[in-house]
Amino acid sequence: MHFIWIVFLLQLVALRANAAVITENGLPILWDQAPGQLSVLAQGNSVITINPWNYLQRMSLYRILVDSTNQYMASMGPEATESPLWGLPLQLGWKLRSGRLIDPTGATKCGYEEDPMCISANSWWACVNIYISVIPFLAAVDEAVIGDGLIQFQVQAPAESAEGYCLSLLSCSTEHPLLMTKWKEFFQTLKNVSTSEISDLEKRDQILGAYWAGQQQSLHTASSSCQAKMSSYSSPEVSFANNWIKSADYVAATYFQSSINNSVLFLSPLPSRVLKEWDSPPNIADLSTEENHALYMFDWMNRTDRFLMGSLLKMWRSAMCSDKSREKGRELLNDLVINPKFAASTFFSILKEMIQSC
Ligand SMILES: *[C@@H]1O[C@H](CO)[C@@H](O)[C@H](O)[C@H]1NC(C)=O
Ligand SMILES: *[C@@H]1O[C@H](CO)[C@@H](O)[C@H](O)[C@H]1NC(C)=O
Ligand SMILES: *[C@@H]1O[C@H](CO)[C@@H](O)[C@H](O)[C@H]1NC(C)=O
Protein backbone atom coordinates (compact mmCIF):
# COMPACT_ATOMS: atom_id res chain seq x y z
CA MET A 1 0.00 0.00 0.00
CA HIS A 2 2.75 2.41 0.92
CA PHE A 3 4.42 1.91 -2.39
CA ILE A 4 1.27 3.04 -4.13
CA TRP A 5 1.18 6.15 -2.02
CA ILE A 6 4.73 7.02 -2.97
CA VAL A 7 4.09 6.56 -6.65
CA PHE A 8 0.90 8.57 -6.45
CA LEU A 9 2.62 11.47 -4.72
CA LEU A 10 5.65 11.47 -6.92
CA GLN A 11 3.30 11.66 -9.87
CA LEU A 12 1.57 14.61 -8.30
CA VAL A 13 4.88 16.32 -7.64
CA ALA A 14 6.29 15.78 -11.08
CA LEU A 15 3.34 17.62 -12.60
CA ARG A 16 4.20 20.89 -11.01
CA ALA A 17 7.45 21.43 -12.85
CA ASN A 18 6.35 23.65 -15.72
CA ALA A 19 3.22 25.72 -15.80
CA ALA A 20 1.09 26.82 -18.75
CA VAL A 21 -0.36 30.31 -18.55
CA ILE A 22 -3.94 30.36 -17.37
CA THR A 23 -4.00 33.84 -15.84
CA GLU A 24 -3.83 37.42 -17.08
CA ASN A 25 -2.13 39.87 -14.71
CA GLY A 26 -2.45 37.19 -12.06
CA LEU A 27 -6.24 36.99 -12.47
CA PRO A 28 -8.56 34.64 -14.41
CA ILE A 29 -8.70 35.05 -18.22
CA LEU A 30 -10.60 38.26 -19.21
CA TRP A 31 -11.53 38.93 -15.58
CA ASP A 32 -11.05 42.68 -16.08
CA GLN A 33 -13.50 42.75 -18.97
CA ALA A 34 -16.28 40.96 -17.13
CA PRO A 35 -18.80 43.34 -15.53
CA GLY A 36 -18.18 43.48 -11.79
CA GLN A 37 -21.46 45.07 -10.71
CA LEU A 38 -24.99 43.82 -10.65
CA SER A 39 -26.14 47.12 -12.14
CA VAL A 40 -24.29 46.39 -15.38
CA LEU A 41 -26.19 43.15 -15.78
CA ALA A 42 -29.51 44.73 -14.86
CA GLN A 43 -31.68 45.57 -17.80
CA GLY A 44 -33.97 48.06 -16.15
CA ASN A 45 -36.26 46.63 -13.55
CA SER A 46 -36.16 44.30 -10.57
CA VAL A 47 -35.65 41.19 -12.66
CA ILE A 48 -32.08 40.79 -13.87
CA THR A 49 -31.50 38.50 -16.80
CA ILE A 50 -28.13 36.81 -16.91
CA ASN A 51 -26.75 35.13 -19.96
CA PRO A 52 -24.32 32.38 -18.95
CA TRP A 53 -23.87 31.45 -22.64
CA ASN A 54 -21.57 34.41 -23.01
CA TYR A 55 -18.12 33.97 -21.46
CA LEU A 56 -17.87 37.51 -20.08
CA GLN A 57 -21.27 37.27 -18.44
CA ARG A 58 -20.55 33.89 -16.92
CA MET A 59 -17.27 35.32 -15.65
CA SER A 60 -19.21 38.26 -14.31
CA LEU A 61 -21.20 35.88 -12.07
CA TYR A 62 -17.88 34.84 -10.56
CA ARG A 63 -16.69 38.42 -10.13
CA ILE A 64 -19.82 39.32 -8.22
CA LEU A 65 -19.60 36.10 -6.21
CA VAL A 66 -15.96 36.65 -5.24
CA ASP A 67 -16.53 40.32 -4.41
CA SER A 68 -19.65 39.65 -2.35
CA THR A 69 -18.04 36.90 -0.27
CA ASN A 70 -14.64 38.49 0.39
CA GLN A 71 -15.88 40.03 3.61
CA TYR A 72 -16.46 36.52 5.02
CA MET A 73 -13.11 35.09 3.97
CA ALA A 74 -10.77 36.73 6.50
CA SER A 75 -9.81 33.34 7.96
CA MET A 76 -8.35 32.27 4.59
CA GLY A 77 -5.45 34.68 4.92
CA PRO A 78 -4.59 38.35 4.60
CA GLU A 79 -4.70 38.52 0.77
CA ALA A 80 -7.88 38.86 -1.29
CA THR A 81 -6.42 36.19 -3.57
CA GLU A 82 -6.86 33.49 -0.97
CA SER A 83 -10.60 32.87 -1.22
CA PRO A 84 -11.29 29.30 -2.37
CA LEU A 85 -13.86 30.64 -4.84
CA TRP A 86 -11.02 31.73 -7.15
CA GLY A 87 -10.65 28.14 -8.26
CA LEU A 88 -13.92 28.39 -10.18
CA PRO A 89 -13.23 31.36 -12.49
CA LEU A 90 -9.68 30.11 -13.11
CA GLN A 91 -11.16 26.82 -14.23
CA LEU A 92 -13.58 28.59 -16.57
CA GLY A 93 -10.63 30.48 -18.09
CA TRP A 94 -8.81 27.22 -18.75
CA LYS A 95 -11.94 25.83 -20.41
CA LEU A 96 -12.10 28.87 -22.70
CA ARG A 97 -8.42 28.82 -23.61
CA SER A 98 -8.36 25.09 -24.25
CA GLY A 99 -11.32 25.22 -26.65
CA ARG A 100 -13.64 23.32 -24.35
CA LEU A 101 -16.50 25.82 -24.51
CA ILE A 102 -16.99 25.65 -28.29
CA ASP A 103 -19.77 23.70 -29.98
CA PRO A 104 -18.24 20.23 -30.29
CA THR A 105 -20.87 19.15 -32.80
CA GLY A 106 -19.72 21.85 -35.24
CA ALA A 107 -23.40 22.58 -35.95
CA THR A 108 -22.95 26.24 -34.94
CA LYS A 109 -20.07 28.72 -34.91
CA CYS A 110 -20.48 29.16 -31.15
CA GLY A 111 -17.08 29.58 -29.50
CA TYR A 112 -15.16 29.60 -32.78
CA GLU A 113 -13.20 32.56 -34.19
CA GLU A 114 -16.38 34.15 -35.53
CA ASP A 115 -18.03 34.14 -32.11
CA PRO A 116 -15.27 33.71 -29.53
CA MET A 117 -17.22 34.69 -26.39
CA CYS A 118 -20.08 32.31 -27.12
CA ILE A 119 -20.38 29.34 -24.77
CA SER A 120 -22.06 26.37 -26.41
CA ALA A 121 -24.86 24.52 -24.66
CA ASN A 122 -23.67 21.44 -26.56
CA SER A 123 -20.33 21.50 -24.76
CA TRP A 124 -20.07 18.96 -21.95
CA TRP A 125 -17.57 21.17 -20.14
CA ALA A 126 -19.86 24.20 -20.36
CA CYS A 127 -22.74 22.09 -19.12
CA VAL A 128 -20.81 20.85 -16.09
CA ASN A 129 -19.66 24.40 -15.43
CA ILE A 130 -23.26 25.64 -15.10
CA TYR A 131 -23.47 23.64 -11.87
CA ILE A 132 -20.45 25.44 -10.43
CA SER A 133 -21.33 28.93 -11.68
CA VAL A 134 -25.05 29.64 -12.10
CA ILE A 135 -26.09 27.29 -9.28
CA PRO A 136 -23.85 28.74 -6.52
CA PHE A 137 -24.69 32.23 -7.80
CA LEU A 138 -28.42 31.60 -7.42
CA ALA A 139 -27.88 30.07 -3.97
CA ALA A 140 -25.93 33.19 -2.94
CA VAL A 141 -28.82 35.32 -4.17
CA ASP A 142 -31.24 33.21 -2.15
CA GLU A 143 -29.12 33.73 0.97
CA ALA A 144 -28.88 37.47 0.21
CA VAL A 145 -25.09 37.23 0.04
CA ILE A 146 -25.60 38.73 -3.42
CA GLY A 147 -28.23 41.45 -3.76
CA ASP A 148 -30.69 42.52 -1.12
CA GLY A 149 -32.95 39.48 -1.15
CA LEU A 150 -35.40 41.33 -3.38
CA ILE A 151 -33.73 41.37 -6.77
CA GLN A 152 -34.80 38.46 -8.92
CA PHE A 153 -32.71 36.71 -11.49
CA GLN A 154 -33.71 35.00 -14.67
CA VAL A 155 -31.18 32.82 -16.43
CA GLN A 156 -31.23 33.08 -20.21
CA ALA A 157 -31.77 29.84 -22.08
CA PRO A 158 -29.06 28.85 -24.56
CA ALA A 159 -29.71 29.50 -28.25
CA GLU A 160 -29.34 25.82 -29.16
CA SER A 161 -31.83 24.26 -26.76
CA ALA A 162 -33.03 25.00 -23.26
CA GLU A 163 -33.56 21.35 -22.53
CA GLY A 164 -31.91 20.12 -19.35
CA TYR A 165 -31.08 23.50 -17.85
CA CYS A 166 -32.95 25.13 -14.96
CA LEU A 167 -33.44 28.83 -15.52
CA SER A 168 -34.42 30.44 -12.22
CA LEU A 169 -34.00 30.10 -8.48
CA LEU A 170 -37.39 28.44 -8.29
CA SER A 171 -36.88 25.95 -11.09
CA CYS A 172 -33.32 25.09 -9.97
CA SER A 173 -34.54 24.53 -6.40
CA THR A 174 -37.34 22.32 -7.67
CA GLU A 175 -35.18 20.32 -10.05
CA HIS A 176 -32.11 20.02 -7.81
CA PRO A 177 -33.24 20.48 -4.19
CA LEU A 178 -30.27 18.77 -2.55
CA LEU A 179 -27.79 20.68 -4.70
CA MET A 180 -29.32 24.05 -3.86
CA THR A 181 -29.41 23.09 -0.18
CA LYS A 182 -25.68 22.28 -0.16
CA TRP A 183 -24.76 25.62 -1.70
CA LYS A 184 -27.12 27.52 0.56
CA GLU A 185 -25.47 25.79 3.50
CA PHE A 186 -22.12 26.99 2.22
CA PHE A 187 -23.27 30.62 2.19
CA GLN A 188 -24.92 30.23 5.60
CA THR A 189 -21.70 28.75 6.94
CA LEU A 190 -19.76 31.73 5.56
CA LYS A 191 -22.02 34.13 7.40
CA ASN A 192 -22.28 32.10 10.62
CA VAL A 193 -18.58 31.40 10.88
CA SER A 194 -17.46 34.95 10.22
CA THR A 195 -19.16 36.16 13.41
CA SER A 196 -18.26 33.18 15.59
CA GLU A 197 -15.50 32.99 18.22
CA ILE A 198 -13.78 29.84 16.93
CA SER A 199 -10.15 29.84 15.72
CA ASP A 200 -9.17 30.63 12.14
CA LEU A 201 -8.18 27.01 11.64
CA GLU A 202 -11.68 25.86 12.61
CA LYS A 203 -13.25 28.59 10.49
CA ARG A 204 -11.24 27.56 7.45
CA ASP A 205 -12.13 23.93 8.02
CA GLN A 206 -15.86 24.65 8.24
CA ILE A 207 -15.92 27.02 5.26
CA LEU A 208 -13.84 24.75 3.05
CA GLY A 209 -15.81 21.68 4.15
CA ALA A 210 -19.09 23.32 3.14
CA TYR A 211 -17.51 24.60 -0.08
CA TRP A 212 -16.32 21.17 -1.20
CA ALA A 213 -19.62 19.59 -0.19
CA GLY A 214 -21.29 22.04 -2.60
CA GLN A 215 -18.76 21.36 -5.35
CA GLN A 216 -19.04 17.61 -5.02
CA GLN A 217 -22.80 17.73 -5.15
CA SER A 218 -22.51 19.97 -8.22
CA LEU A 219 -20.20 17.57 -10.00
CA HIS A 220 -22.40 14.64 -9.00
CA THR A 221 -25.49 16.34 -10.44
CA ALA A 222 -23.59 17.50 -13.51
CA SER A 223 -22.25 14.00 -14.21
CA SER A 224 -25.74 12.70 -14.80
CA SER A 225 -27.35 15.85 -16.22
CA CYS A 226 -24.59 16.43 -18.80
CA GLN A 227 -23.89 12.78 -19.64
CA ALA A 228 -25.53 12.85 -23.10
CA LYS A 229 -23.21 15.67 -24.25
CA MET A 230 -20.20 13.39 -23.91
CA SER A 231 -21.14 11.65 -27.14
CA SER A 232 -19.69 14.58 -29.12
CA TYR A 233 -16.14 13.92 -27.91
CA SER A 234 -13.35 11.46 -28.68
CA SER A 235 -12.77 8.56 -26.30
CA PRO A 236 -9.50 10.04 -24.90
CA GLU A 237 -11.37 13.26 -24.11
CA VAL A 238 -14.24 11.33 -22.49
CA SER A 239 -11.76 9.40 -20.43
CA PHE A 240 -9.98 12.58 -19.35
CA ALA A 241 -13.30 14.23 -18.52
CA ASN A 242 -14.38 11.30 -16.34
CA ASN A 243 -11.05 11.20 -14.57
CA TRP A 244 -11.10 14.94 -14.09
CA ILE A 245 -14.45 14.70 -12.30
CA LYS A 246 -13.11 11.87 -10.18
CA SER A 247 -9.93 13.71 -9.22
CA ALA A 248 -12.10 16.30 -7.49
CA ASP A 249 -12.83 13.66 -4.83
CA TYR A 250 -9.16 13.54 -3.86
CA VAL A 251 -8.81 17.29 -3.79
CA ALA A 252 -12.08 17.67 -1.88
CA ALA A 253 -11.00 15.25 0.84
CA THR A 254 -8.22 17.62 1.92
CA TYR A 255 -10.64 20.56 1.88
CA PHE A 256 -8.17 22.08 -0.56
CA GLN A 257 -7.93 25.85 -0.35
CA SER A 258 -8.32 26.75 -4.02
CA SER A 259 -6.79 30.23 -3.81
CA ILE A 260 -5.40 31.80 -6.98
CA ASN A 261 -1.89 30.51 -6.42
CA ASN A 262 -2.93 27.02 -5.39
CA SER A 263 -5.40 26.66 -8.25
CA VAL A 264 -2.93 27.81 -10.88
CA LEU A 265 -0.53 25.07 -9.85
CA PHE A 266 -3.21 22.42 -10.18
CA LEU A 267 -4.82 23.73 -13.37
CA SER A 268 -1.83 24.61 -15.50
CA PRO A 269 -0.76 21.05 -16.37
CA LEU A 270 -4.25 20.22 -17.72
CA PRO A 271 -4.41 19.59 -21.50
CA SER A 272 -4.44 22.86 -23.45
CA ARG A 273 -6.71 21.52 -26.20
CA VAL A 274 -9.56 19.05 -26.60
CA LEU A 275 -8.20 15.53 -27.11
CA LYS A 276 -8.71 13.77 -30.42
CA GLU A 277 -9.44 10.16 -31.22
CA TRP A 278 -5.83 9.35 -32.16
CA ASP A 279 -4.28 11.04 -29.10
CA SER A 280 -2.46 8.56 -26.95
CA PRO A 281 -1.08 10.02 -23.71
CA PRO A 282 1.68 10.26 -22.59
CA ASN A 283 2.85 10.52 -26.21
CA ILE A 284 0.90 13.44 -27.63
CA ALA A 285 3.42 15.34 -29.70
CA ASP A 286 1.89 18.82 -29.58
CA LEU A 287 1.21 18.79 -25.84
CA SER A 288 3.89 19.62 -23.29
CA THR A 289 5.61 17.03 -21.14
CA GLU A 290 3.63 18.29 -18.17
CA GLU A 291 0.29 17.96 -19.96
CA ASN A 292 1.15 14.46 -21.12
CA HIS A 293 2.23 13.62 -17.63
CA ALA A 294 -1.00 14.92 -16.10
CA LEU A 295 -3.05 12.78 -18.49
CA TYR A 296 -0.90 9.82 -17.71
CA MET A 297 -1.37 10.41 -14.01
CA PHE A 298 -5.14 10.67 -14.30
CA ASP A 299 -5.18 7.39 -16.14
CA TRP A 300 -2.85 5.84 -13.58
CA MET A 301 -5.18 6.92 -10.81
CA ASN A 302 -8.12 5.31 -12.57
CA ARG A 303 -6.28 2.04 -13.10
CA THR A 304 -4.91 1.95 -9.56
CA ASP A 305 -8.24 2.73 -8.02
CA ARG A 306 -9.89 -0.03 -10.04
CA PHE A 307 -7.08 -2.44 -9.15
CA LEU A 308 -7.65 -1.63 -5.48
CA MET A 309 -11.39 -1.86 -6.00
CA GLY A 310 -11.98 1.71 -5.04
CA SER A 311 -9.79 1.76 -1.92
CA LEU A 312 -7.25 4.38 -3.08
CA LEU A 313 -9.82 7.05 -2.51
CA LYS A 314 -10.90 5.41 0.75
CA MET A 315 -7.30 5.47 2.02
CA TRP A 316 -6.93 9.07 1.05
CA ARG A 317 -10.15 9.97 2.78
CA SER A 318 -9.29 8.02 5.93
CA ALA A 319 -6.13 10.08 6.39
CA MET A 320 -8.18 13.28 6.18
CA CYS A 321 -10.36 12.63 9.20
CA SER A 322 -10.29 15.78 11.33
CA ASP A 323 -9.80 19.52 10.98
CA LYS A 324 -6.21 19.13 12.19
CA SER A 325 -5.36 16.32 9.80
CA ARG A 326 -6.96 18.14 6.87
CA GLU A 327 -4.96 21.24 7.74
CA LYS A 328 -1.88 19.04 7.66
CA GLY A 329 -3.11 17.50 4.41
CA ARG A 330 -3.39 20.95 2.85
CA GLU A 331 0.06 21.91 4.09
CA LEU A 332 1.36 18.68 2.70
CA LEU A 333 -0.11 19.37 -0.73
CA ASN A 334 1.33 22.87 -0.61
CA ASP A 335 4.75 21.61 0.40
CA LEU A 336 4.67 19.12 -2.42
CA VAL A 337 3.57 21.77 -4.88
CA ILE A 338 5.97 24.48 -3.84
CA ASN A 339 8.90 22.29 -3.04
CA PRO A 340 9.04 19.23 -5.29
CA LYS A 341 12.11 18.04 -3.42
CA PHE A 342 10.09 17.73 -0.22
CA ALA A 343 11.31 14.34 0.92
CA ALA A 344 8.97 11.41 0.42
CA SER A 345 10.10 10.05 3.80
CA THR A 346 9.05 13.24 5.57
CA PHE A 347 5.80 12.95 3.77
CA PHE A 348 5.34 9.41 4.94
CA SER A 349 6.03 10.03 8.57
CA ILE A 350 3.46 12.80 8.51
CA LEU A 351 0.91 10.70 6.69
CA LYS A 352 1.41 7.77 9.05
CA GLU A 353 0.96 10.04 12.01
CA MET A 354 -2.19 11.40 10.42
CA ILE A 355 -3.75 7.99 9.87
CA GLN A 356 -2.79 6.84 13.38
CA SER A 357 -4.25 9.90 15.05
CA CYS A 358 -7.59 9.41 13.33
C1 LIG B 1 -26.39 29.38 10.57
O1 LIG B 1 -26.99 30.01 11.69
C2 LIG B 1 -28.40 30.00 11.67
C3 LIG B 1 -28.90 30.84 12.81
O2 LIG B 1 -28.25 30.53 13.99
C4 LIG B 1 -28.90 28.54 11.75
O3 LIG B 1 -30.30 28.50 11.71
C5 LIG B 1 -28.33 27.78 10.56
O4 LIG B 1 -28.68 26.41 10.67
C6 LIG B 1 -26.82 27.91 10.50
N1 LIG B 1 -26.40 27.32 9.24
C7 LIG B 1 -25.28 26.61 9.11
C8 LIG B 1 -25.05 25.97 7.79
O5 LIG B 1 -24.45 26.53 9.97
C1 LIG C 1 -11.23 4.00 -16.25
O1 LIG C 1 -10.83 3.11 -17.23
C2 LIG C 1 -11.86 2.31 -17.75
C3 LIG C 1 -11.25 1.27 -18.69
O2 LIG C 1 -10.24 1.85 -19.46
C4 LIG C 1 -12.87 3.17 -18.46
O3 LIG C 1 -13.93 2.39 -18.98
C5 LIG C 1 -13.40 4.16 -17.46
O4 LIG C 1 -14.27 5.05 -18.12
C6 LIG C 1 -12.27 4.90 -16.80
N1 LIG C 1 -12.79 5.69 -15.74
C7 LIG C 1 -12.80 6.96 -15.83
C8 LIG C 1 -13.28 7.67 -14.62
O5 LIG C 1 -12.38 7.51 -16.82
C1 LIG D 1 1.22 34.06 -5.01
O1 LIG D 1 2.32 33.90 -5.87
C2 LIG D 1 2.96 35.12 -6.21
C3 LIG D 1 3.99 34.82 -7.27
O2 LIG D 1 4.76 33.72 -6.95
C4 LIG D 1 3.56 35.74 -4.95
O3 LIG D 1 4.18 36.95 -5.24
C5 LIG D 1 2.42 35.98 -3.94
O4 LIG D 1 2.95 36.44 -2.73
C6 LIG D 1 1.64 34.71 -3.70
N1 LIG D 1 0.47 35.04 -2.92
C7 LIG D 1 0.15 34.41 -1.80
C8 LIG D 1 -1.07 34.91 -1.10
O5 LIG D 1 0.80 33.50 -1.32
In a few lines, what is going on in this structure?
The protein contains 15 helices and 4 strands. The chain is mainly α and 358 residues long.
Walk me through the structure.
- It is built from 15 helices and four strands.
- The model has no long low-confidence stretch (mean pLDDT 85).
- The longest helix has 26 residues, at 200-225.
- The strands form two sheets. A two-stranded antiparallel sheet has the order 1-2.
- With 358 residues, the protein is mostly helical.
- Helices cover 54% and strands 3% of the residues.
- One 2-acetamido-2-deoxy-beta-D-glucopyranose (NAG) binds next to helix 10.
- Pfam families: Leg1.
- It is found in: Secreted.
- One of its GO terms (cellular component) is extracellular region.
Q: List the strand order in the largest sheet.
A: 1-2
What small molecules does the structure contain? 2-acetamido-2-deoxy-beta-D-glucopyranose
Number of helices, where a helix is a run of at least 4 consecutive DSSP H or I residues: 15
Task: Give the overall form.
Answer: globular
- In N-to-C order, the SSE pattern is HEEHEHHHHEHHHHHHHHH
- Based on secondary structure, the structural category is mainly alpha
Mean pLDDT, all residues: 85
Low-confidence stretches: none
Instruction: Determine the fraction of residues in helical runs and give it as a percent range.
Output: 40-55%
Number of strands: 4
**What is the gyration radius calculated from CA atoms?**
20 Å
The proportion of strand residues reads: under 5%
Instruction: Report, as a whole number of angstroms, the end-to-end distance.
Output: 18 Å
Largest sheet: 2 strands, antiparallel
InterPro entries: Leg1
Pfam families: Leg1
Keywords: Glycoprotein, Secreted, Signal
Signal peptide: 1-19
